[in-house]
Amino acid sequence: MTILVTGGSGFIGSNFIRNVLQLDGVSIVNIDKLTYAGNAENLSDVEGSRYYTFVKGDIGDHELINELLTKHQPRAIINFAAESHVDRSIVSPEDFIATNVVGLFRLLNASKDYWSKLDETGKAAFRFLQVSTDEVYGSLEAGDPAFSETNRFEPNSPYSASKASADHLVRAYHQTYGLPTLTTNCSNNYGSFQFPEKLIPLIILNALDGKNLPVYGDGQQTRDWLYVTDHCDAIADVLNRGVVGETYNIGGESEMTNLDVVRKVCSVLDELRPSISGESYEHLIEYVTDRPGHDRRYAVDITKVKQELGWTPKQTFESGIRKTIQWYLDNQEWVDRVRSGAYREWIIKQYG
């Protein structure tokens, strides 16, 4: 079986590819634009595998996608390709529309054309899986029940609006053309190879550098945290056994406030890599001006994926955050290489 993975050199995509290549009889074709967060080094350990092919390209390049589909005849397409950082979407929303909406639209068109020419067996086996986010549902109050798959979309940032648009297009291509689609809406991911603009790696690396640990507003924004390899297992389960046309929420059952996450990272670092002064890293916490339209709480109900597919997260936040912090401690060379001049300029612009 061959799977075409888009955006596979990013954080979640690279973890997924690495997991899947451990299985017998599965080949991966990875197309990635290699923007600031797409890093070919994330998959350097599988570059020599005859089951892995990398192509530098854009999902919006219809001709290139058609060429890859014709050449490799994939049984499935998994779309990880997306601009995904909310802060960046506030500053440069057009980039998010270009990739997350227009690029996805062109990818869907190419996929539909490819699928329509398959024989009946091929059509029945084919799947298009859209990897999306819980942010499409909007924001919850403290006592509200978690989002289910039937919640209406109420996106509040340019990023979440672009992903909501993409999810609607995926649904439309299934309903209108019969394209066999699947969609997953996940909570906040964390783990190895995450680009250090996101909260957890940012806090880890700033703490190690003795820099301030920026916390938006009062730090009481609540998120559900999902360890990345648990997410990858869930995607594989949805791909293999999910009901065509359905959406599945994927979460880690680990709701925490941002401030508590930062404090937990500090606590584990105090144990694994104490500061030279002996002082807890917590003294570096600095409250900064909240971002516009900051959603207060996300939480997803994962009853459906549990009951229908038997998936459940293996990692608690306690176990997952320890694995994550240890990975960053053990992979300083990777960290140094991804923290390019462009990344440093962004951090200075965003946090001062």
Overall mean pLDDT: 95
Q: Which sequence of strands runs across the widest sheet?
A: 3-2-1-4-5-6-10
Q: Which architecture name of one domain does CATH use?
A: 3-Layer(aba) Sandwich
Low confidence ranges: none
Shape: globular
Cα gyration radius (Å) = 20 Å
> Main β-sheet, in a few words?
7 strands, parallel
- Helix fraction? 40-55%
Tally of alpha and pi helices: 13
Summarize the structure.
This protein is α/β, with parallel strands linked by helices and 352 residues long. Helix content is 44%, strand content 16%. It has a domain at 2-187 and 228-252 and 297-314: 3-Layer(aba) Sandwich (Rossmann fold).
Q: How is this fold's topology laid out?
A:
Elements: E1 2-6, H1 11-20, E2 27-32, E3 52-56, H2 62-72, E4 76-79, H3 86-91, H4 93-116, H5 120-125, E5 127-133, H6 158-177, E6 181-186, E7 188-190, H7 199-208, E8 213-216, E9 222-227, H8 228-241, E10 247-250, E11 255-257, H9 258-272, E12 285-288, H10 303-309, H11 317-330, H12 332-338, H13 341-351
Parallel strand pairs: 1-2, 1-4, 2-3, 4-5, 5-6, 6-10, 7-9, 8-12
Antiparallel strand pairs: 9-11
Helix pairs in contact: 1-8, 2-4, 4-6, 7-9, 9-11
